[in-house]
Amino acid sequence: MTDNIDMRRIPQHVAIIMDGNGRWANEKGKERSYGHQAGVETVRRITSECTRLGVKYLTLYTFSTENWNRPATEVAALMGLVLSSLEDEIFMKNNVRFRVIGDLERLPKEVQEKLQVTMEHTADNDAMTMVVALSYSSRWEITEATRQIAKEVAEGKLEPADINEDTVASHLSTSFMPDPDLLVRTGGEVRVSNYLLWQIAYSELYFCDTYWPDFSEADLRKAIACYQGKQRRFGLTEAQIESKENENENKEA
Q1: Angle (nearest 5°) at CA 196 between 49 and 156
Q2: Which of 75, 191, 195, 222 is 20 to 30 Å apart from 206, CA to CA?
Q3: How many secondary structure helices (H) and strands (E) does the chain include?
Q4: Considering only CA atoms, which of 167, 165, 139 is closest in space to residue 152?
């Protein structure tokens, strides 16, 4: 079932801030870890639905650099959950390639090793790429890119005058994929929380009150339908966009 979705205009890249696991669990009188476990099941369902719809990149904000400040017991539970949830089945069943971005050196060694193994096992899958943002923040990412660029300038490999937007983008950890077309945040908060700040400059933003464990395939389709109802102008006027669309239609004809 695709509801009112135009299958010809599916966003190529959907990024999601999976918020509300802890509050969902608290409202049920459970530990926060119970909500994180339920959230993994949602990841499986949404991954399958994105693959079915033809989304090519799905990026999930899993654990931010700021999350290291949470209670040690919760951080340990989350790291354990990362290990247990990296099952080949979800990737191989849906022909999904797995990638990860973030400050991975801060992760426990066994988590780093499991991430690497999963990336290697799924490297040839090509229906969709799931990217997990783990120990990630956009400020960390941009700072790291700046350091790399400064190093290349110091080594004489790059002239300061040659630095442009493409230079910065190519040094970001997301350089292997296009910028998100659609950013979804669940859980009722209306902010982007240091997530893909450079990359979402022209993304459509969709916020919903539904906690992540309750986020369904129908909720995803609703977000995509909302995205399809927007005219993405990228700084152009409506008239310019319409002219381009007519041009493309004439070429196809």
Answers
A1: 130
A2: 75
A3: 9, 6
A4: 167
Residues pairing with 136 in the sheet? 64
Residue 206's region, left for phi above 0, alpha for psi from -120 to 50, else beta, is beta
Catalytic residue among 3, 4, 6, 19: 19
Choose the catalytic residue: 67, 103, 125, 194: 67
Task: Please tell me the distance from the alpha carbon of residue 54 to that of residue 37, in angstroms, as a whole number.
Answer: 26
The answer to whether residue 69 is catalytic is no
Residue 80 pLDDT > 80: yes
Q: Please give the pLDDT value at position 145.
A: 98
Does residue 2 surpass a pLDDT of 90?
Answer: no
Q: Within 86-137, where are the H helices?
A: 88-93, 109-121
Q: Is 19 a catalytic residue?
A: yes
97: part of which helix (H) or strand (E)?
A: strand 96-101
Closest CA to 183 of 171, 197, 170, 172: 197
Expressed in angstroms, the distance from the first to the final Cα of the chain is 30
